[in-house]
Amino acid sequence: MMSDTSVKFVPEPERYEFSAGPMHHFELARRDFFKFLGAGIAVFAVAKDSLARQETAPTHGFHQEELPKDIAAWLHIGEDGTVTAFTGKVEIGQNIRTSLAQTVADELRVPFESVRMVTADTALTPFDFGTVGSRSMPTMSPQLRRAAAAARDLLVGAAAREWNVAVEGLTAADGKITNPATGRSLRYAELARGKTLAQNLPAEDPVTPPNEWTVAGKPIPKKDGRTFVTGKHQYTPDLRRPSQLYGKVLRPPSFGATLISYDAKAAQAMSGVVIVHDGDFIGAAAGNERDASKALEAIHTEWKEVPQISSKELFSYLKQNATAKSDDRSRRIKGSVEDGLAAAARRLNATYTVAFIAHAPLEPRAAVAEWSDGKLTVWTGSQRPFAVRDELADVFHIAESNVRVIVPDTGSAYGGKHTGDAALEAARLARAAGRPVQVVWTREEEFTWAYFRPAGVMEIKSGIAADGALTAWEFHNYNSGMSAIETPYIVPNQHIEFHSTQCPLRSGSYRGLAATANFFARESHMDELASAAQMDPLDFRLKNLSDPRLSAVLEAAAKSFGWPRKKTQEGQGFGIAGGFEKGGYVATCAEVAVDRSSDAVRVVRVTTAFECGAIVNPDGLRNQVIGANIQGLGGALFEAIEFENGRITNPRFSRYRVPRFRDVPDVEAVLLDRKDFPSAGAGETPITAVAPAVGNAIFNATGIRLRGLPLIPNGLPPTKA
Amino acid sequence: MTKPIELEINYKRYLVSSDPETPLLTALREELGLTGTKYGCGEGQCGACTVLMDGAPRRSCQIPVSAAAKKSITTIEGLERDGQLHPVQQAFLDAGAFQCAYCTSGMIMSSVAFLKANPRPTSAEIIQSLQGNICRCGTHPRVIEAVRQAAMTILELGQG
After folding, report:
1. What angle do CA A318, A322, A327 make, to 5 degrees?
2. Distance between CA atoms of A608 and B52, rounded to whole angstroms?
C-alpha cells in the first residue's frame, strides 16, 4: 500500500487551440542513430537557413499563413539495403505508413518492400507538431522525398568515387546505381556496407514530378496488413510490460465537481493495490483491472457539484454567452451587406445548428507508462506524441529528454486523440507504484471524459438577384469554429464572422473541424436559395462559382450520380453539396428514400467526388473518402451527445447511435487525380459535404427543410404538406 | 483464492485464476495474453470482442469466464493453420477491408461463424450478420465484399 501525494497533479487542461514552440532533437537522434540501426548511410535533410524547424500550428480561416517548408526528415540505408525512414507522424488508420513509404521508395528508386517506416517515437523521429489538419501528405511527403532525393545523390556520389568516374550520367533505379557507359552497377546495400556515413544535406533538391512516379500513385496494400487480420498487431491496450499493473481512475460524478471529502482506508487495506490521491486525481493500480476497480469502489468520496445546462438549452446558451465583440481576425467584411440585400430580388434568413458529437474511436484512450532511473517511457495512442511528451515533462517536472513517447499504430482518432490524458494518468500511477502501469479507458469514460466536436449555431442572411446571382452573404458562426467559414461562391457583399462563446462541454478537434458545421449551414442555405430562385441546385451553384476545381468536383459527382435525376418512386429525393477546405475539393450527391407512413429516412446512395491534387495511393484514398462519407452519415443523421447537470446521459453505444452496416448506403468515390497540383491531405475534407447533401435530399423528397445536425435523431419530424 | 477455471482455447488447455464472474474478454487479454480479441464497449454493442464458443459467435465481454468452461473457444489467434490464413482473414487482407483495423478481429470472428452457418449468403444476409459489429472508420463496403469473397473461397475449398 503506497500513497504518493508529493506532486500536484494537474489534469489535462482544455486545449482546443494548439500552439507549440520550435523543438529540436536532431543531435539526440543522430547520436543514437547507428546504435539503433547499425552501419550504413544516413541522410538528415535540413533546410539551409534553419535547423529542423517545426511546422507552425495550423491556422484556420482568415489570415492563413503558408507553412514553412523546412521540416527535417531523415532516413537510413542499411548494409542489407533496407531503407528506414523516420517521421513523427502517427498511423491512425489513415494509411500514412503505406503512402509515406511509397513516396520514399519512389524517390529513392527502391522497391516498396525494402522501405520501413519508423513513426511517432519521440526518441527516434523528427519533431512533429502532430498528425492533424490533413498535413501528413502535403508536408511530410515532400520532406521525405527531399531526404530520399538527397540520399540518392549521396549514393550516386559514392558510386562515382568507387568507379572513379564523374557523377553525371550515372543512374539510380531498382535499388542500385548504374553506369550506362560501362554497364556496371552497385546495389545500395553494397554502397552502404561498412560505412557509418551521416550527412546533413540541404533539402532543396527537385523531386520527381507526379507524372514520373513509379511506386507512388499505385494502389499498394496496407503495410503489415497481415498483422491486423491475425490479431498480432499490438495497439496500446495490447502491450504488456514486465510486472505491469492495471490502473483505474476515479472520475468525479459530474463535470467541474470538486472533492470535499475522501476516505481510502478500506481501499488501502486491500493487498496488492496502489492508491494515488493527488489534487483532484484519485486512481488505483493493481495486478488486474478488476482489483483496481474494486479498490476505487471502496474509496468514499463526497463532491461538490455545480449546476449546469442541459443539451436542451444548448443553442440558446451558445448565442446568449457569445463574447460581446469579436476581433478582426475572426471577421471579414467585403462591400456592404446592407446594399447587397437592398439590391436583392429575394432575401433569406435562416439559422442552422450542429450538436456536440463524440469521436468514439473504437480503440479507447490508453497508455502504458514505465519509469526507470527517473526517466519515463510512455506508449499511448495519441495524434501528438511530442505534445504529450511535453505535457509529461511539464507535469512531472522532468526534462523533455527524460521522457520518451511512443505511439503504436492506433485504433483511429478522427481528431479526438490530441491530448495526453491517459498518458498522464498512467504515468502518475506508475510513479507511485514503482512498476509499469497501463490505463485503458472504458467506453463510458471515452464518451464522457474525452472531448467533443464543438456544437455551434450558424446564422445566415442572404440575397440573390432575379437571375440567381448572389448579392449579399452574412454568415455568423457561434462556437463551432472558423474552418471553411468563408464562402467559395462569388458574392460582392459579405460579412463573415466567428463568435466565440462559453462552451458547456470540453471541446476539441474533430475530423474536418468546423468545416462540417460551416458546410452544412452554407450548402443547406444555397439549396434554399436555389429553391427560392426556382433553379436546379447544381446550376445555381455553378452560376455563382468561379473556382474551376470546385466546379470540376461538382460536375464530376453530378455526372457519376446522374444529376439531375427524375424521381421514380414516392419518397425519393436527391441533394447536392460541395466546397473546399485544407487543399481538398469535395462534392457529394445523395439519394434518400423517405417512408411517408413511418417517416423513416434511408440514405440510399452517396456519390462523392474528391480532388486533392496528385494522388499518392488511390486505394488508400478511396478507403479514406468512402470511410469519411460513412462516418459523416452518423453526424448527419443521428449522432448527438446529450447532457444534463454536468453528466453525459448517453455515454454508450447502446444509447449513442453510430452508423452500422444497415445504415450504409451504396457509396461511390470519384477520385480526380490532378498531377499538376501538389498532394493535399484527404483525411478530413471528404466528410464535409455529406450532411448538407443528405439534408438537401430530404428537402427534395419531402419539402421539409431540416436545419439542425443531426437531421433525424428520432426519425423525420411529422410530415407537413 | 478462487479455484482455477479450466478453459479450452484454440485447442489448447489453460487454467485461469480470475474470479468466476470476470468477463472472458478480460481473462483472455489480461491473464492469457491473447490480446487479438479487443475491448470496444463492454456492453456487447460493438462486436470487437467476438470469439467463437462451440462455433457460435459470442461477445466475450458479456460472458463470465465460468460460463466459458467446458466450451471450445476460438479466438482470432486460433484461425491460422500451419501459417495459412483462414479464408476469411485472407479475404479481409485481399480486399483491404480495414483502416485502423481495431474492429477487424471481431469482424473476422463474426464472419467465420456466420459463413459456417450460412455458406451461400446474400448481401442482405451478410449485412444483417454484421449489424452488431461497429466499424468507426467506415470500411463497411469492403468488409461486405471480403465476406462475399471468403464465402466463395470456402465453397471452392470445400470447407463449407
Report:
1. 140
2. 38
> ∠ CA(A128), CA(A132), CA(A133), 5° rounding?
125
Most A CBs within 10 A among B125, B140, B153, hence the mutation to make, goes to B140
H helix intervals, A17-95: 26-37
Q: What is the pLDDT of residue A201?
A: 66
H/E segment holding residue B109: helix B104-117
Structural class in CATH, domain B5-78: alpha beta
Cβ A225–B96 below 8 Å, yes or no?
Answer: yes
- Residues of chain B neighbouring A623 (CB-CB closer than 8 A): 96, 99, 137, 139, 142
Q: Answer for the pair A178, A170: CB distance below 8 angstroms, yes or no.
A: yes
Chain segment A62-120, per-residue pLDDT in tens: 433 333 334 456 889 999 999 999 988 999 998 999 999 999 999 999 999 999 999 99
Q: Does residue A635 contact residue A516 with C-beta atoms inside 8 Å?
A: yes
Give the nearest partner residue to A229 out of B85, B131, B133, using CB atoms. B85
Residue carrying C-alpha cell 475522501? A262
CATH, domain range B87-157: 1.10.150.120
Domain that holds residue A427: 236-305+365-440
pLDDT digits (tens, 9 = 90+) for A328-385: 788 999 999 999 999 999 999 999 999 999 999 999 999 999 999 999 999 999 999 9
By three-state DSSP, how is residue A300 classified?
strand
- pLDDT computed for residue A206 by the predictor: 65
Torsion angle (degrees, nearest 10) of CA B59, B65, B70, B76: 40
- Joined grid coordinates for residue B9: 482455447
User: Which of the residues B9, B51, B102 would you substitute to probe the A interface, choosing the one with the greatest number of A C-beta atoms within 10 Å?
Assistant: B102
φ/ψ region of A711 (left if φ > 0, alpha if ψ in -120 to 50, else beta) reads alpha
Same domain, A340 and A381: no
Q: Flag if A662 and B131 touch (Cβ within 8 Å).
A: yes
> How close A352 comes to chain B (CA, Å)?
26
The three cell numbers of residue A707 are 436545419
A11 vs A18: CA distance, rounded Å: 17
Asked if residue A240 and residue A204 are part of one domain, the reply reads no
- Paired sense of beta strands A375-380 and A403-406, if any: parallel
What span, in angstroms and rounded, lies between the C-alpha atoms of A245 and A285? 6
Of A362, A623, A658, the CB nearest to B102: A362
Considering the entire predicted model, what is its pTM?
0.92
Q: What is the mean pLDDT of chain A?
A: 89
Same domain assignment for residues A491 and A593: yes
Query: By the CB < 8 Å criterion, does A660 face chain B?
Result: yes
Q: Is residue A311 part of a domain?
A: no
Tell me, yes or no, if A189 comes closer than 8 A to chain B by beta carbon: no
Q: Note whether A651 contacts B: Cβ–Cβ < 8 A.
A: no
Query: In angstroms, rounded to a whole number, what is the distance separating the alpha carbons of residues A571 and A672?
Result: 32
Last-in-domain residue among A396, A415, A440: A440
What is the spatial distance between Cα A84 and Cα A627, in angstroms, rounded to a whole number?
A: 30
Show the cell assigned to A565: 435525376
Q: Rounded CA gap, A351 and A340, in Å?
A: 20
